[in-house]
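Model it.
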Amino acid sequence: MSSNNILTNALQDNGDTTIEPPSFIEITKKTVRFGSNIYQFRNITGFGLAEAKNGNVVPIKLILIGFAVGLFLANIPDFRFWGIFIALAAIVGIIVNSSQPKRYGLQLELNSGRKRVFITRDLEGVKKVVSVLYNFMESDQEGSFN
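Modeled.
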């Protein structure tokens, strides 16, 4: 499963949200450019911070089955070592899943009803971009942002 699918599922959208990789942002009086994507500024109806939950690296079903099998095998003397090993591997799977860094995104809402989310791990950077977009919407200036 690709990371875009995982993030799309994590945002729990209705199919109108597109996940985009982070890129350079350029703002002019008429357009907003994110990498190779260009939007007319007048078509942006809203923007803000979106938290994207990470998908699991190790599937939950695999962890549960591994833990159950590990506990079962740990009670059989000839397979005790393998049972403990499998149960510990399941615990490591839980730790790996819970230690994934949080991802955030700049969510643009377009007047068509579609949403674009530009994903990053830099929360402060997203807040700064939202602030710059807000200030730009309220003024007549041009500029760009990395």
